[in-house]
C-alpha cells in the first residue's frame, strides 16, 4: 500500500469515527446549524439574539422550537455544567406573560421542550371577544398553534372562534396583512395563516387555504426566496415561513420554482455562513440565533 | 465529571469572566432619526460611545452596550438615543431588562404602545425593522439609526436628491426602500408623486432653501433632503457638506490569488464620507479562458455575458458597513469586482475596482 493510500485510509476512518459533524464540510446544513446553536447557548441554558449576548425569552423559545424541529431534545442541550435549554424555557416561560403573542410562544416552546404547560388558562383569558388574539393576524395564528399544542382539538370553541376571525381577515388578493383586512398583504402573515388554517382542521382545498397559497406562490423572487414585503429582498425568516406553509399543505418546497428560479430550500441553504449560522439576508447578519433557529424549522420542512 | 463539579467549574469561569470586564470600543458617529406619528422628532448626526442609558429627568442608569467582536462592548442603537438625550432630546419611557428602552414620549410627542393599532416606536437596522432591542446590536461609524412609530410592517423610505438647483430647473429626486434600495412608486415628495422608477420631478420657482421628505401610505417617512435653490449667489444657503463619498472593498484584495477551498464567499467593505447611505451596489464579472459571466443579483447566479460588456450593478444593501454573502464560494476563474455607493443627496462615489483570481 502506498503512503498516500495509507493516509487516505486513516483519514477516512477518522472521519467515520468522528461522525459527520466533526467532518466539517461533510456535515449537513442542519447539523452545522444545530452545532452553531449549541455553541451559542449561554450558561443559564438560554439564548440571546447573538452568541455571548444576554438571555432573552424570545431567542430562548425560538431556539427550543428550532432545535426540536431538527430532532434535538432541549432537555439535553446544555453547556458543560450549565442549565439545560428546557430549564431555561421553563424559567423564561413563566415571566412576561402580559400579551397573547408571548404567551402563545411560551406554550409552543414548552411543548417543544417536552414540558407540561400551565399557561393555557392565561392564553384563553387573552382571547378577545371577536375570537382573535390582539386583533392581529400573526398573533391569532400563533394562538391557534398554541391552543393545538396545548391539546385543544380543532373543534374546540376557542380554536374555532380564532379560525373564523382569521378567515375574515383575508384580503381580496388572497393574502393576509399584519393588522388585518385592508392592509397590504405580507409573506409572513400569509404563511402563518395557511399553517393556522391547517392546524385548525381546514382541508388543503378549503377556499381560504387555496387563495392564500396562490398569493404566496406568486411572491417567490427570482432567487428562489421570499421577502418580508412583496417588493423587498428575500430573507431567511420569510423563506422559512413560506417553506413551512408549503409543507402544511403537502406541497414539496423543492418543487416550488417560479419562472425557473431556484427552490426556496436552496435559497435558504445559500444563506448559511461558514460558522453554521444563517444570515437574515444577503446583506444583513442581524440576530443570528433567532434567524438560525427559524431556518432550522424551514430546513426540517415542519409546520408549526 | 459530575454535574455538580461542572457547575462549580462553570461558576469559577463566570467569576473570571465578570472580573475581566470587556473593553469598550471607540466612539462612533451615526445618523440618528426619530419619526413620530405626525412629524420628524429628531434628525441629525450624533456621536455615541458605550454609555449607560437614562430617560430624561431620571437618574436611574441602565446598561446599554452591544457585545461585539473579541468581547469588546460596542455602541448600540440605544446608546445613540442616550447620546441624543444627553444633548437635550427629551425622552420618557420604561426599561426592560434584556430588551432595552420602550419609549412613551419623544420630544413631547406620544410614541407609546397603542394596543388598538399595535403601533409603537419600532427600531430599524439599516432600513429594515430590527429584530432585537435597542441595546443588542452594535452600530458602526456612519450607520443609519432609525426609530419610527408604526407596527413594524411598514417599510422605511429613503430619499435622494441634489443639494443645489437653479430656480425653474427640473429637479429629480428618487425614493427607495431604505432596506434594499428598491424604487418606490406612488410616494409624495413636495407636490410631486414618484413614478414606477421611484423618481419624482419638482421645480422651485424662487431661490431659497427647501427641505423635502418623502411620504407614502404604509411606509415610514424618509430622511430629509435639503435643496439650496440659487442663481449663482450661494449666500443664504446652508454651508455645503463635503460631498465626497467613497466605497471600498475589504474582504478581497486586489491582485490576490485565492485557492478554491478558500475562495471568497462574503464580500464586505465600507462607505465613508457619506451622510445617509442610500444604496450600495456591486458588479461582479468572472472570466475563464475566453468566456465571461456576470453575476445576476436578481437570480443570484452567474450568467454568460460578452467579455467586452460590463456586468450589471446589483444591490448590496444600504449601510455604511456593507456586506453581501454570495450563495456559494466562487469557482475557479478571474474576477472583476466593483462597488459604488450613493448617499441621500444623490452623490455617487467612484466605482472602486478589485481584481482577483480563484485557482
Description:
The complex is a heterodimer of chains A (304) and B (359). In chain A, α3 packs parallel to α5 (100-112) and α5 packs antiparallel against α6 (120-126). The longest helix of chain A has 20 residues, at 3-22. A two-stranded antiparallel sheet of chain A has the order 1-2. Chain A is globular. Chain A is mainly α. Chain A has helices spanning 3-22, 29-40, 57-69, 85-93, 100-112, 120-126, 137-149, 157-167, 187-199, 207-217, 236-248, 264-269, 288-299; strands spanning 226-227, 234-235. Chain B folds into 3 domains: 14-153, Ferric Hydroxamate Uptake Protein, Chain A, domain 1 (Beta Complex), CATH 2.170.130; 157-229, Immunoglobulin-like (Sandwich); 246-358, Immunoglobulins (Immunoglobulin-like, Sandwich), CATH 2.60.40.10. Chain B contains 2 helices and 30 strands. Chain B has helices spanning 3-19, 77-86; strands at residues 28-35, 40-48, 66-67, 73-74, 91-96, 100-106, 109-110, 120-125, 128-129, 144-150, 155-160, 164-165, 170-177, 188-189, 192-193, 199-203, 208-212, 214-215, 219-220, 225-229, 246-249, 257-258, 266-272, 277-288, 291-296, 301-304, 314-315, 321-325, 333-343, 352-358. Chain B is globular. The interface between A and B is large, with 50 and 53 residues.
Amino acid at each position: 500500500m502506498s503512503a498516500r493510500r495509507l493516509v487516505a485510509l486513516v483519514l477516512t476512518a477518522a472521519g467515520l469515527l468522528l461522525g459527520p459533524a466533526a467532518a466539517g464540510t461533510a456535515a449537513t446544513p442542519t447539523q452545522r446549524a444545530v452545532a452553531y446553536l449549541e455553541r451559542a447557548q449561554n450558561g443559564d441554558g438560554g439564548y440571546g439574539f447573538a452568541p455571548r449576548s444576554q438571555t432573552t425569552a424570545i431567542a430562548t423559545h425560538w431556539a427550543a422550537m428550532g432545535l426540536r424541529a431538527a430532532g434535538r431534545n432541549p432537555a439535553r442541550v446544555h453547556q458543560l455544567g450549565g442549565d439545560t435549554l428546557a430549564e431555561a424555557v421553563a424559567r423564561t416561560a413563566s415571566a412576561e406573560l402580559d400579551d397573547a403573542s408571548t404567551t402563545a410562544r411560551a406554550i409552543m416552546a414548552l411543548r417543544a421542550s417536552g414540558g407540561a404547560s400551565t399557561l393555557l388558562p392565561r392564553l384563553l383569558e387573552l382571547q378577545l371577544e371577536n375570537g382573535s388574539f390582539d386583533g392581529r393576524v400573526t398573533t391569532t395564528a400563533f394562538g391557534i398553534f398554541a391552543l393545538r399544542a396545548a391539546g385543544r382539538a380543532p373543534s374546540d370553541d376557542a380554536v374555532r372562534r380564532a379560525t373564523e376571525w382569521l378567515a375574515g381577515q383575508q384580503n381580496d388578493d388572497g393574502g393576509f396583512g399584519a393588522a388585518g383586512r385592508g392592509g397590504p398583504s405580507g409573506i409572513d402573515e400569509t404563511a402563518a395563516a395557511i399553517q393556522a388554517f391547517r392546524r385548525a382542521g381546514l382541508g388543503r382545498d378549503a377556499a381560504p387555504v387555496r387563495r392564500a397559497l396562490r398569493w404566496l406562490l406568486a411572491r417567490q423572487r427570482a432567487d428562489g426566496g421570499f421577502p418580508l414585503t412583496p417588493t423587498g429582498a428575500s430573507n431567511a425568516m420569510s423563506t422559512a415561513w413560506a417553506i413551512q406553509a408549503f409543507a402544511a399543505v403537502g406541497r414539496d418546497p423543492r418543487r416550488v420554482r417560479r419562472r425557473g428560479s431556484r427552490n426556496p430550500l436552496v435559497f435558504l441553504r445559500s444563506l448559511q455562513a461558514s460558522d453554521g449560522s444563517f444570515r437574515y439576508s444577503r446583506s444583513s447578519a442581524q440576530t443570528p440565533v433567532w434567524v438560525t433557529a427559524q431556518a432550522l424549522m424551514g430546513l426540517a420542512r415542519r409546520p408549526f | 465529571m459530575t454535574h455538580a463539579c461542572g457547575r462549580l467549574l462553570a461558576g469559577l469561569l463566570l467569576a473570571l469572566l465578570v472580573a475581566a470586564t470587556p473593553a469598550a470600543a471607540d466612539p462612533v458617529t451615526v445618523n440618528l432619526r426619530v419619526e413620530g406619528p405626525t412629524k420628524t422628532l429628531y434628525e441629525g448626526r450624533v456621536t455615541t460611545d458605550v454609555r449607560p442609558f437614562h430617560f430624561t429627568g431620571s437618574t436611574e442608569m441602565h446598561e446599554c452596550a452591544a457585545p461585539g467582536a473579541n468581547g469588546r462592548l460596542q455602541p448600540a442603537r440605544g446608546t445613540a438615543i442616550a447620546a441624543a438625550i444627553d444633548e437635550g432630546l427629551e425622552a420618557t419611557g420604561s426599561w426592560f431588562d434584556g430588551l432595552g428602552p420602550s419609549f412613551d414620549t419623544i420630544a413631547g410627542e406620544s410614541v407609546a404602545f397603542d394596543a388598538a393599532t399595535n403601533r409603537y416606536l419600532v427600531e430599524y437596522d439599516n432600513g429594515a425593522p430590527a429584530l432585537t432591542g435597542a441595546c443588542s446590536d452594535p452600530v458602526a461609524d456612519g450607520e443609519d439609526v432609525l426609530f419610527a412609530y408604526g407596527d413594524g410592517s411598514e417599510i422605511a423610505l429613503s430619499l435622494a436628491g441634489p443639494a443645489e438647483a437653479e430656480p425653474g430647473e427640473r429637479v429629480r429626486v428618487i425614493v427607495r426602500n431604505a432596506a434594499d434600495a428598491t424604487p418606490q412608486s406612488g410616494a409624495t415628495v413636495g407636490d410631486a408623486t414618484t413614478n414606477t422608477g421611484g423618481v419624482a420631478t419638482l421645480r422651485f420657482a424662487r431661490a431659497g432653501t427647501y427641505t423635502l421628505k418623502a411620504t407614502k401610505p404604509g411606509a415610514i417617512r424618509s430622511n430629509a433632503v435639503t435643496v439650496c435653490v440659487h442663481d449663482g449667489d450661494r449666500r443664504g444657503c446652508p454651508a455645503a457638506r463635503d460631498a465626497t463619498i467613497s466605497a471600498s472593498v475589504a474582504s478581497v484584495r486586489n491582485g490576490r490569488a485565492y485557492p478554491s477551498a478558500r475562495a471568497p464567499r462574503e464580500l464586505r467593505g465600507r462607505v465613508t464620507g457619506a451622510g445617509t447611505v442610500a444604496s450600495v451596489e456591486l458588479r461582479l464579472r468572472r472570466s475563464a479562458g475566453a468566456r465571461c459571466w456576470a453575476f445576476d443579483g436578481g437570480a443570484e447566479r452567474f450568467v454568460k455575458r460578452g467579455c467586452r460588456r460590463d456586468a450589471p450593478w446589483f444591490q448590496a444593501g444600504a449601510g455604511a458597513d456593507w456586506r453581501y454573502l454570495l450563495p456559494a464560494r466562487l469557482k475557479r476563474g478571474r474576477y472583476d469586482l466593483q462597488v459604488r455607493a450613493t448617499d441621500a443627496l444623490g452623490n455617487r462615489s467612484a466605482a472602486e475596482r478589485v481584481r482577483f483570481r480563484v485557482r
